Structures are given as structure tokens and as C-alpha cells.
Amino acid sequence: MAEFVTVDRGVAEGIAVLRIGRPPMNLIDLQVALEVASAAADIGGDPSISAVVVYGDERVFSAGDEQAELAALTPEHAAAIVPDFQAALNCLAKIPQPTVAAITGYALGAGLELALGADHRIIGDNVKLGLPQIKAGLIPLAGIRRLSLLIGPAKAKDLVYSGRFVDAKEAAALGLVDAVVAPDDVFASAMRWAERFVDGPSLALAAAKRVFEAGTHGHDRARSEWAELFGSEDQLVGTRSYLVDGPGVARFTGR
């Protein structure tokens, strides 16, 4: 039974809300990261879920790494846990359904690294984001590559090397986030984004996500994913409906 992470399937049909709840600041230690990863795997295997909202609470998404845990790690222990910790921080990118991070207050350190794995990021206009691990003599474990791909190497290096925070305006200008809204509208905006995918072409969406995640091997992965969609019920219904009625009319089944 998870202590700090819950999955709510009852907020809206077809949408799961993955919540991080470790008050007061939702700091991420190994346990929280593994609980998020376990919840993500559970969501990914549930065909009734079309999209996922990742959320902390009204005050804060996550203020970052649990420094007390990191300060106590020996080199041997750090080396032993790093594969699982890194994989857990990357887990949102492995969810086959579209994911949106609904960010309030702060998304720092491991919290921002987790959010970088989402497909979409919506923040309140009072939010602060950053990767301050360098100020603790460390580096981001899972965020450097994703940040570099998202905003470019030069801007990513500035944020990682300095460890500085950025406000909502700069985050939007950098391309670090996709939408800035009023603080009270963050969760509702994320839900509206997620609702677009309810009853959508889940097989094709999952295939597209795997191609994006393949990185430099995306062209090769796209060929295999494209070919494997043929013969699925969704492809047959979708292409025939598109031909007869145009886009946006087909009703998909996920088969």
C-alpha cells in the first residue's frame, strides 16, 4: 500500500489523477519516487484510462529532493539505488496514455525532473521551477537530457550549472512549460487538456509516445510502430471513417 501517492479514477471518466501527497512540500525521496513509478505502471496497464493528470496539491507540486535522505547516503548505497531512482523519475514518459503535469507553487529538483517526463506541463502564474541540485554538490539524475531536448543545450546548461529558479514568465519563454494559467485554474486546465483524449485512438497515441521516447532512433521506431498499427480495429475504423466522414468522427475502442 502506497503511503504518499494515490491514483484517483473517479474524478472524470477515462482520466486518472496521480497525486503526490507528502506534506508540507511533497519532497521526493526514493520511496516517493518508487510509489510514483508503481502507480504509473498500474495506470499504464489499465485500458479504461485514456489520459493522466499528475498533481501535488493546491499549494505545491513538489519542492524537490529530500536532502536529509541524500545527505545520509554512502557512495555504495548511492550506487545501489541509482538505477531504480533514475527509472522512477523517468516513469511518466513510459505511461502509454497522454500525461499532463498540473504544477502549483514549486516544481524543483526531482519534482521538475518528474514533470519533464510528462507530455504537457501547465503551471500557475506564481510558480517557481528549477533544478538546484548543483547547489548541493549534485546533478539532476533524470532531467538533464530531457531538459536539453526541450529547451536546447545552451539554455539547459544555464539552468543546470546555475541551479537558479525561473518564474512562470521565463519558463514559458524558454519553452519549459506549455501553458500558464491562474493558480486556481491549474488543475481544471489540466483536466480539460486530458479530456481531449478520452475515447481517443489509444493504440496510435501509445505508438506515437514510444517513437518520441526513442530519441535519435525515432525514425526506425516509427517504421515498426506504424506498420504494427495496421490490422488493429482502431486503424480499420479510423481510416475508413476518415475517408467517408473526415477527421474527428471515428469512435475508437483501443483494440
Q: What do you see in this structure?
A:
The chain has 255 residues and is an alpha/beta fold. The chain folds into 2 domains: 191 residues, 2-enoyl-CoA Hydratase, Chain A, domain 1 (Alpha-Beta Complex); 44 residues, no CATH class. It has 11 helices and 9 strands. The strands form 2 sheets. The protein has a 6-stranded mixed β-sheet, sandwiched between helices. Strands 5-7-8 form a 3-stranded mixed β-sheet. Strand 1 and strand 2 form a beta hairpin. Helix 9 packs antiparallel against helix 10. The longest helix is centred in the first third of the chain and has 15 residues. The protein starts with a strand and ends in a 10-residue tail after the last helix. The model has no long low-confidence stretch (mean pLDDT 97).
What is shown here, in short?
The chain is α/β, with parallel strands linked by helices and 255 residues long.
**CATH C-level category of the largest domain:** Alpha Beta
What average pLDDT do the residues reach? 97
Helix content: 40-55%
Given the C-alpha coordinates, what overall shape results?
globular
Widest β-sheet, arrangement of strands: 1-2-3-4-6-9
Overall domain count: 2
CATH architecture of the largest domain: Alpha-Beta Complex
Secondary-structure element series: EEHEHHEEHEEHHEHEHHHH
Stretches where pLDDT is under 50 for at least 5 consecutive residues are none
Our Rg estimate from Cα atoms comes to: 19 Å
CATH H level, superfamily name of the largest domain: 2-enoyl-CoA Hydratase, Chain A, domain 1
Largest sheet: 6 strands, mixed
How many E-type strands?
9
By CATH, the topology of the largest domain is 2-enoyl-CoA Hydratase, Chain A, domain 1
How many angstroms separate the termini? 31 Å
- Alpha-beta classification: alpha/beta
Estimate what percentage of residues fall within beta strands: 15-25%
